[in-house]
Amino acid sequence: MLIISLVLVLCVFGTDTAMQNAPCPVVSTREIDLKELDGKWYVAGAATDLPLQGDCAMVVFNHKNDNTTDVSISWINNNTASFYNGSVALTMDPNNSSGDLLLITYTDQKIESYSFLDVNYEHYAVIFSCNNSDDGNSSTYELWKLSRSPHLKDQDAEEMDQAINYYVQDTEFVNFNATEDSCQGNGGNDIHSSVAITSVATIALFRRFY
């Protein structure tokens, strides 16, 4: 089953992190409230190396009573749900003592820090991660456009695009047109746990190859 899943992921891995011929921009980070971030977010668009495909993708932050937070990225393609999970912590931005970075440790041991280019906890969020090349003349970056609603409002889309274009331009996104029906079961309650385990193991193997 794992081999079959690996072949499928290699075949559909159409997304990728974005590249630019410039170093990472210095982001004006802000304080992040994990309690306000808690809950379900629909992915309106993403530039990432995860194999996001299908009609619905979601990010769910789960802030617990012990003040820890988990995150689960999930997407549905051909009625099959895939998951990529991690734990969340806040760390201080070394370039801005009053700003926070979202530090996520994924289940395949990948660790990534994210900045919020803009956030309205009731409506939308723009999450950004960037890594400079060894020579410092170029960089790769990851962008997530998140919405509290499956139907992205025009004003929210405009606010997100303004925040993105202030730092990077001409990003190619994988976009989603989510509906309540297409996202049904994406919280994982209707999916057998073996699907999640297979998905995480497959992604971990893929990252080792690249």
Please, could you describe this protein's structure?
The chain has 210 residues and is of the alpha+beta class. It contains 4 helices and 10 strands; from the N terminus they run αβαββββββββαβα. It has an 8-stranded antiparallel beta barrel with strand order 2-3-4-5-6-7-8-9. Strand 4 and strand 5 form a beta hairpin. The longest helix is centred in the C-terminal third of the chain and has 17 residues, at 193-209. The radius of gyration is 17 Å and the shape is globular. The model is unreliable at 1-15, 188-198 and 200-210 (pLDDT under 50).
Give structural attributes.
alpha+beta; 210 residues; eight-stranded antiparallel β-barrel; 10 strands
Q: Main β-sheet: number of strands, strand sense, barrel status?
A: 8 strands, antiparallel, barrel
Count of DSSP strands: 10
Oligomer: single chain
- End-to-end C-alpha gap: 21 Å
Average residue pLDDT: 81
Tell me the helix content: 10-25%
Strand content: 35-45%
Cα Rg? 17 Å
Shape: globular
Structural class: alpha+beta
- Put simply, the count of helices is 4
Strand-helix topology:
Layout: H1 2-12, E1 18-20, H2 34-37, E2 39-47, E3 56-63, E4 69-77, E5 80-93, E6 96-106, E7 111-120, E8 124-132, E9 139-147, H3 154-167, E10 174-175, H4 193-209
Antiparallel strand pairs: 1-9, 2-3, 2-9, 2-10, 3-4, 4-5, 5-6, 6-7, 7-8, 8-9
